Amino acid sequence: ATRIRAHLEGLGYGLPGTVGPIIPWVLGTERAALDAQRRLHERGVHAVAIRPPTVPEAASRIRLAASAAHEDGDVDRLLEALSGARPSASR
After folding, report:
1. What is the DSSP letter of 13?
2. Per DSSP, what are the bridge partners of residue 26?
3. In whole angstroms, what is the distance from residue 27 CA to residue 11 CA?
4. Is residue 27 within a helix (H) or strand (E), and if so which, with residue range?
5. Alpha carbon 78 to chain centroid, angstroms
6. What whole-number distance in Å separates Cα of residue 45 and Cα of residue 52?
7. I want to staple 81 with a disulfide (CB 3.0 to 4.6 A). Which of 43, 47, 62, 91 is the partner?
8. Of 51, 37, 23, 48, nearest to 85 (Cα)?
9. Rounded Cα–Cα distance for residues 74 and 41 (Å)
């Protein structure tokens, strides 16, 4: 989770919440979150966009969950996918 958070922060995203296995990648609009979800799926990563009414307006996100079952290679592939999944508005 620490590597994933550091990577997203390196891409310029502030991450709300506390340190832990759940990583909220807040993208703002529903469109941005759905775009990132699609791009992640294209890269073989299952991720779901969380949108209103589950989260407040302008707080749509991808919720990532790290697990001790993930190996270093799994995290490496996720980090590569995250770099390529940035929504167009964020590029």
Report:
1. -
2. 61
3. 12
4. strand 22-28
5. 9
6. 22
7. 43
8. 37
9. 15
